[in-house]
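Sanity check

After download, print the first record. It should look like this:
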Amino acid sequence: MSTQNAERISQKRRERAFQEAFTYQQFIDNAKVNVERFQANFEQYTLSRQELAYFKSLPEPINVLVLAHDWCGDVVANLPLFAKIERETGKLKLHILLRDPDNQDIAAAYLHKDGRNHIPTYVFFNGGEELGLFIERPDQITDLISIWKEEFWNLHSEWEGRDKALSELDEEVKRSLLRYLNEQRPKAREQEKTAIIESIRSILG
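Expected structure tokens:
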């Protein structure tokens, strides 16, 4: 999900956030979980000539403030794409913060359309101008996740919890569901890449 043109944190707060932020490599070096999945996704994402040409045509690097955690499946899935664009074009500069516990004020400034904060949250800045944001994942991937969940429950009709939130599931069921979703997500990597780059282009103009 992306939105545009809503300046929500002060210049002073933005500057402090940039000073305290991790680079992508520092984020990975400090990750406690999912390191192999981050590395695999980074290696598997490839940019087409047209995509490379678009980013290289940008006159200046765009600063991207990111709220993330290594345990989040959406962070694992798409933060490596942003890092690949950064490495191969130099036209995105990532500033990655852990949302919890010290950056809840930034999270509260950039809420999802459902009224809650989600990770990852990417906020784009050109100099001091806030251009827009991208939150969590593309809508197409959200639709696929719903399909994958339905497939999972059809495969495991003996288990209870089909209509429950993830946090309400029995631990064994929750682990199995997350494992199934993690196995499906890479199949949509190209679709996710295309949708995210389209969102970035709509934000940057």
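If your output differs, re-run the checksum step. Summary of this record's structure: The radius of gyration is 17 Å.
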